[in-house]
Amino acid sequence: MDELLSREIEVLVPLLAAFDVTASQGHITRAAQLLDVPQSSLSRRLKTVEKTLGVQLFQPVGRGIALTAAGRELFDRTHHLVRSLDDALSVVRSNADPDSGLVRFGFPLTLGPISIPALLAEFHTAAPRIRLHLVQAHGEALVEQIHTGLLDLAVMIPAPTDLSAIMLGHQRIHLYVARDHRLAGRDDIDPSELSGEHFIANPPAFHLRGLFDSWCAAAGFTPHVVFEIAEFEAMRALVAHGLGIALLPEPETPHPDLHRITLRDAPRRTIGLVTGNHRPTPAVARLHEYLARHAPAQIDHPGT
Residue ranges of the HTH lysR-type domain (predicted)? Predict the structure, then answer.
C-alpha cells in the first residue's frame, strides 16, 4: 500500500507558488506584484514555509533578498514541479474552454504607448474572454521571465538565440540631437562626422549599447559617453536639454524638442515574438497566431 504523504505537504503545497516566484525574483515587492497579493500577505506565506520546514530560506541582500543554501536546494528541487503543475492546470482549463484562459505577455520598453496596446485592444475584441497579464520590462528581465515560466509570450528586441522565436520586423536606429544643436539642420550624416561629439547611451550590458559601440568602432572612433542611463525617455530628455546626442529607436509619440537625423549604415534591431519551452495553452497559441499575423504591419516601420 502506498505511504501517506507527509504532513508538511498539506501545509506547503498551497504556499510553494509564493516561494517559487519570490525565489525567482529575488525581491518581495516584485514577487507580490506578480502574484497580485499584498506584500504583507506574501511575507506571511514565506514565514509559514520557513516555520514548517524549520529552516531559513531567504536572507537580505541590499534592497532585495537571496536564497540561503537550504532555500536554493528547495528551489532547485521544486521549481520544475511548480511550473509543470501550473502548465497542467492551464492546459486542462483552457482545453475545457479554448475561448478563455490567461496569457502572460511581455513587451519591451521601446515599444508600447501605441503599437502594442493597439494590437492587444484588437485581440481583446476578437477574444474578449481571454485574460492578459502584461509585463513591460527591459530585455534581460523578459528573457528571465520567459525562462522561468512567468511569461508565456514576449516581444523582444532582439530575440534571444536559445528560445523559440519568429521575426515580426525591424527597429531602425536614428541619431537624435536637440533642436538648437549644430547638427539640427542635417537630414542624414556619416558616422565619421560624430567622433568629437558627447553621447548619451545605455549601460554596457544593454543590447543597443553593444550596437552603438560596434557602429562607432566601424566608423573609426571610440565614443565619448558623458551619461549612461537605462530609460530611453530619460535619454531623450537629456538630449533635449543639450547634454549630448544619442542613437535611439524612433519614439512612438513625437518628441517636439528633438531633431532626428538618418544615419548612414544605420544599425537595425530584429523584433521577435518569443515563446517559452513549455506547451502553450490554446489561449497562448491564439495570441501567438494573432500577433504573428498582425504585428508586422503595426510595429515595423520600413524606411524610417
Answer: 11-68
